Amino acid sequence: MVGQFGRDGDFRAVALLGPGDSYGELAVFAQRPRIVDAVSRGESRLRLIGAKAFLDALGNYLASMRALLGALSEQLQDTLGQLAGMRRGTNPARMAGLLANMAGPGDGPASVAITQQELAELLGITRATANAALSELQKRKLVTRGYRSIAIPDRAALALFALE
User: Fold this and answer.
1) Residue 155 lies in domain
2) By C-alpha distance, which of 123, 82, 114, 99 is closest to 18?
3) What is the mean pLDDT of residues 17-25?
């Protein structure tokens, strides 16, 4: 999870990373300190790439630079979409939008490895509110809750519900 520690020491997640994901590159480009930290909920393998080596590699491998710019652009679009969704819609619709985004592109089934607490943190709501939103989505057969995971039988239907 990527997020920030509050003054009270609580961690507030803003994103959930998976295999192959990265963070910190925006701080390198902006020449500013990182504003987020990462916390692992299990065993993780990490690779630290120093700023100079990172920028040198991007300069020498244009395909890598294009891939990174594409990934960053996709993240920005997702973030802007989530921000717009948070300003409108019900909690179930907001939850649907977040899960559809996390499930990735496509129309078929998917699974998202995440807890209800993590979903609540990402949406800025309580766990009880997240549970109620998930209950509504499950009642509509848009998701099925499992242990540390949410099964999505139809990503397109979930994304469509998020627009309501």
Assistant:
1) 90-162
2) 114
3) 82
